[in-house]
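Hi team,

As requested, here is the filled-out complex form for the pyridoxal-5'-phosphate run. I kept the field names the same as last time so the parser does not choke. Let me know if anything looks off before we queue the next batch.

— J.
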Amino acid sequence: MNHKKYTFLDLGTVNRPYADALKEAVCRVIDSGRFIGGPEVDAFEKSMTSLCDVAHAVGVSNGLDALRLIFRAYIEIGVMQPGDEVIVPGNTFIASVLAVSDCGLVPVFVEPDPLTMNLDTRLVEAAVTSRTRAVMPVHLYGRVCYDDTLRDTATRHGLKIIEDSAQAIGATASIPGRGGSRRAGGLGDAAAFSFYPTKNIGALGDAGAVTTDDTLLADTVRRLANYGSDRQYHNIYKGLNCRLDPMQAAILSAKLPFVDRENGTRRRIASVYETTITNNAVVKPLYTDDGSAVWHQYVVRVDNRDAFRRYLADNGVETGIHYPVAPFDQPCYKEYNALELPVSRRLAATVVSLPVSGCTSETDAAEISEIINTYKAK
Ligand SMILES: *Cc1c(COP(=O)(O)O)cnc(C)c1O
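And here is what came back:
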């Protein structure tokens, strides 16, 4: 029996290398006396525009609000109206879908490609109706979902491409004819980021951002997030309070410069799994070495998942499931529970996330692979 513990994720360990910088950031905000908006938020937004090579970044309260604000803004601008349809992948995290329905829009679920576990862009066209206004590629598990098929379909039908980049900060995609390589968040018309503590770059609490090249959209998002006001005590929209607070902005500014280092750690662990897991009962995720994946999760697929997870747990390996129930099968979406989406359901039943973060070493990953390789499927 192996007695070493392989922690899935420990946020204390992940943040330890930043401890001094984080304390300095928090003290700086306390000393500044500025606790809403201001230079810390401005500086963070500026860093996000350079990272994603976009014209605008708006710091907001969290990833779900980032998505909600994008849809609300498109509705205020007149690009969409309640009842319009938005195409979403059937295997995404629930927040992608909540943002759509919260704005009175209708989610239309499209199956993922089992190879990439991302929205199958070849199936988007067939799901387009006269009410479709947008498609939401979700860069699930940190793998970019964007290709010529998606862009051409969107162009042909006048759809906005709204990236759910919550899991993909720093990921890149090579776009022929668009200056080579672009980061997630700079591929579509608008993108939402989350800095939930477990994401590749995590705040010490909730935080998010919207990125876009569209000035009208950015201004509208900014106003909606601040009570719908364009200047103090003048409200042009029935807005919300979804601002990013300066404490989290300062914390994120301390961590954001290290996004490629953080993602590099995850890539090295993924490459160890890729080369050392050889058990035929375990389907490894598509492996690419081109920077297009930042391995927010390393997700394998196994039949009889409970037995596999129990075996790993007995050998000290903690695992996760992202996600055990597809959004359209949730009780809150009863109206979609009868949909036939076998690929999404099959993924929900078989996915297992292995440890991949700053608290897993390459040696740990090799040892976890060894444990996996001695697993006997029944
Ligand atoms: C985390 C996440 C969100 C939501 O972000 P929060 O900051 O937790 O609101 C949305 N979409 C995806 C794919 C996510 O992983």
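Two things worth flagging: Residues 259-276 form the longest helix (18 residues). The first strand starts at residue 56 and ends at 60.

Thanks,
J.
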